Amino acid sequence: MKRLIGYIRNALAQLTKRRRDDGFTAVAYEAVCLIAYEGRAAYARARQQAFYCRSHGSEQGFRFWSAVAVEIDRRAGASARRADEQSR
After folding, report:
1. Long-range residue pairs from 29-33, CB within 8 A, at least 24 positions apart, any chain
2. pLDDT (tens digit, 9 = 90+) per residue, 27-81?
3. Helix (H, G, I), strand (E, B), or coil: what is residue 58?
4. CB within 8 A of 43, min separation 6: which ones?
5. Residue 74 domain flag
6. What is the pTM of this model?
7. How many domains does the chain have?
8. How far apart are CA 79 and CA 59, in angstroms?
9. Is residue 8 part of a domain?
10. Is residue 69 a contact partner of residue 43, using CB atoms and an 8 Å limit?
């Protein structure tokens, strides 16, 4: 039993280390999550982030979030076309 608990504890410690060292910043993680969500709300959130960055003087942030919005729109559009084709 002690061996099993030690194994589980070590496995959890390795998983936690991997999560901390995944290489994503908070902003990049949010962008990836929004792209994965692929919806109207995700597009609106990315545009909101872009205009927030622009209003605070971050042109680089504006371009980044605008690119995220374009990617969400591209993917959501592709999903909508697939769903439309499948319903026919």
Report:
1. 31/64, 31/65, 31/68
2. 888 888 777 777 778 888 899 999 999 999 999 999 999 999 998 888 877 555 5
3. coil
4. 69, 72, 73, 76
5. yes
6. 0.56
7. 1
8. 30
9. no
10. yes
